[in-house]
Amino acid sequence: MSHLKNNAKLLARVRRLKGQIEAIERSIEAEAPCGEVLNLVASVRGAATGLTAELIEEHIREHVSNPDKDDNAERAQGAAELIEVVRTYLK
User: Fold this and answer.
1) Domain covering 7-89: architecture
2) What CA–CA distance (Å, rounded) separates 20 from 33?
3) Residue 59 contacts residue 5 (beta carbons within 8 Å)
4) Alpha-helical regions (H) of 1-91
5) Which residues contact residue 17 at a Cβ distance below 8 angstroms, ignoring those fewer than 6 apart?
6) Mean predicted lDDT score pLDDT of the chain
7) Is pLDDT above 80 for 2?
8) pLDDT tens digits for 37-64?
9) Which of 48, 56, 74, 79 is 20 to 30 Å from 11 by CA-CA measure?
């Protein structure tokens, strides 16, 4: 995915996810209460979903249509709508 524009930002998100996963591992090893572990898992799920949405949006902008630059108004509008649907669906 060499077309990704915000590699530093994406890597920071991945590293945060890694830290969250490690926190789950430590919690399980420490026999933390189920509710605590479940909350940690939920936070990882939310972070992974946010990363997924960002990657899908970047893919649309790079390989389908960039609504900010596409001269074809219909295609640009379709891409913008698709990006909004992805953002809404993955919230």
Assistant:
1) Up-down Bundle (1.20)
2) 17
3) no
4) 7-29, 34-59, 73-89
5) 44, 47, 48, 51
6) 93
7) no
8) 999 999 999 999 999 999 999 999 999 9
9) 79
For residue 41, give the nearest of 54, 27, 60, 31 by alpha carbon. 27
Map tokens 């990657």 to a residue: 55
b/e 33-45 (16+ beta carbons within 10 angstroms → b): eeeebeebeeebe
pTM score, two decimals?
0.83
Question: What span, in angstroms and rounded, lies between the C-alpha atoms of 66 and 83?
Answer: 10
What separation, in Å, do the N-terminal and C-terminal C-alpha atoms of the chain show? 23
Tokens of 9: 């930002």
Q: Where are the domains of the chain?
A: 7-89
